[in-house]
Design goal:
mainly alpha, 62% helix, 115 residues, 5 helices
């Protein structure tokens, strides 16, 4: 009997992590896509990390590279991990205030969760 409980717990954990990963990847992709584009630097500077936020800027590597990095980090997420999506371009905060890329995504998640 304990083996079936352990198997059920492992399945629940695996499903939970899959839902978390899917949610994180969707949110990260939408935030990146919602970032306004002039030169592309803002979109390309979204940096995905685990357990510690990124510091510094990266070169204009393109939106697809930022999304690729997010997907790679999301695959490593486990229960207890902290996923960071950081943008250190000096004007990112101003763009967030004006356009609300992160704010809109958090509102969408809250609505989906019924909060």
């Amino acid at each position: 009997m304990s083996q079936s409980v352990e198997q059920a717990a492992a399945k629940i954990l695996a499903r939970t992590e899959k839902i978390i990963r899917s949610t994180l990847l969707g949110s990260a992709s939408r935030i990146i896509e919602d970032s306004p584009v002039d030169t592309g630097l803002l979109r390309s500077n979204w940096q995905a990390t685990l357990d510690r936020g990124a510091t510094g800027e990266v070169s204009n590597r393109g939106e697809s590279a930022a999304k690729s990095e997010a997907a790679s980090k999301v695959l490593a997420v486990k229960i207890g991990s902290v996923f960071y999506l950081t943008n250190n371009v000096f004007y990112a905060g101003i763009q967030e205030l004006q356009n609300g890329m992160v704010r809109r995504e958090m509102a969408r998640l809250a609505s989906k969760l019924g909060s």
